[in-house]
Design brief:
- With about 350 residues, the chain is an alpha+beta fold.
- The protein is built from twelve helices and twelve strands.
- The longest helix is centred in the C-terminal third of the chain and has 23 residues.
- It is globular and about 65 Å long.
- This is Aminoglycoside phosphotransferase domain-containing protein.
């Protein structure tokens, strides 16, 4: 009973000529002519647990629920996969063997990452997407937590990423990793008042959680897909962090001005004058996380022949994190505070 093989065949679906298969850490994704089916792997990590059928059903339903806000009419529901003793099917007959998320397939050519790589992103499309995202943030209730709790949450995440990257099996340059960790935690302590202010102003909310260019479709209407469903805590963050992350990912593609447009539009409409040093901090923090996610590929057999690629990506993100650590300590506000101590 090979679920992946079954889902890879066009005849397994009602109307499709071909099926494209993509694999991630957590899922197999099957793209038919008009739809996308996502099969969650039975994996268990520190931050998620899909090991049981019940858990996969729960998080399939949760994925549909949390994505309704930013991608209405894209997430169509949850589909059962069944086995009748001889054949697998996506239907009502047979023993339940797994669950899938069913989505409407979006046009690849209108995803932000592809538009950027092709060098053609109409500014009105970007502004429309920025407006939708800003309205989402402004309509979302602030998270109920203290400034201290927020800072402890950040501290814990940074320490986890640092410890993961320092693992002997990766052979990464430890002084650089430790330096990034020290800088981030020193900034967090030195600017504790700034983080407390973000909480008291209601800027820490339940956001998207993984807002990258490949998760944004710009046409015919702006949509943001793949909102994190498996861990609510990973959606809890400062709006400034989410926008800084999006800008960082645009920078990596070579289009920093596109990400800056999102921040600029949000600043204007929300009247939230995000300090530049805070943006530098969040970019360094997220680059650190991305470095860990890149090198983590080496732990999976499916990526065993791609070590050079993922190690290179990891080292690039570590260099970016180091650069932004330097920038945040060179900010005017930081130097002014230093001179008063």
């Amino acid at each position: 009973m090979d679920k992946v093989r079954f889902l890879s065949r066009p005849e397994s679906y009602a109307h499709t000529q071909e099926v494209l298969v993509r694999e991630t850490h957590m899922s197999f994704v099957f793209l038919t002519d008009d739809h996308v089916y996502k099969l969650k792997k039975p994996v268990c990590y520190d931050f998620l647990n899909f090991s049981t059928l019940e858990a996969r059903h729960k998080y399939c339903r949760e994925e549909v629920r949390v994505n309704k806000v930013l991608a209405p009419d894209v997430y169509l529901g949850v589909v059962a996969m069944r086995f009748d003793g001889e054949h697998l099917s996506l239907g009502s007959k047979g023993v339940l063997v797994d669950w899938l998320v069913k989505m409407r397939r979006l046009p690849d050519e209108y995803m932000l990452d592809n538009l950027l790589n092709n060098g053609r992103v109409p500014m009105p499309w970007i502004q429309k997407a920025a407006e939708k995202l800003t309205n989402f943030y402004l309509s979302t209730s602030p998270v109920c937590m203290s400034g201290h709790q927020y800072r402890e949450m950040i501290k814990e995440k940074v320490e986890i990423d640092i410890n993961n990257l320092l693992s002997q099996e990766f052979g990464l340059y430890k002084p650089q990793i430790m330096g990034i960790g020290i800088d981030l935690l020193r900034f967090l302590m030195h600017f504790s008042f700034l983080f407390d202010l973000r909480v008291s102003e209601g800027r820490v909310k339940e956001c998207h959680g993984d807002l990258r260019p490949e998760h944004i479709c710009l046409f015919p209407e702006p949509l943001m897909i793949d909102r994190i469903e498996f861990n609510e805590n990973l959606r809890l963050m400062d709006i400034a962090e989410e926008l800084s992350f999006l800008t960082l990912e645009c920078e990596v593609l070579g289009f920093s001005e596109t990400g800056e447009t999102f921040i600029h539009f949000y600043r204007l409409k929300s009247k939230d004058d995000i300090p530049e040093e805070l943006i530098h901090f969040y970019k360094a923090k997220r680059a650190l996380l991305r470095a860990w996610l890149c090198i983590h590929h080496l732990l999976e057999k499916v990526y065993s022949d791609q070590e050079i690629k993922w190690r290179g990506k990891c080292e690039n993100y570590l260099n970016i994190a180091s650069d932004y650590c330097e920038k945040m300590f060179n900010s005017t506000t930081y130097k002014r505070n230093e001179s008063h101590e």
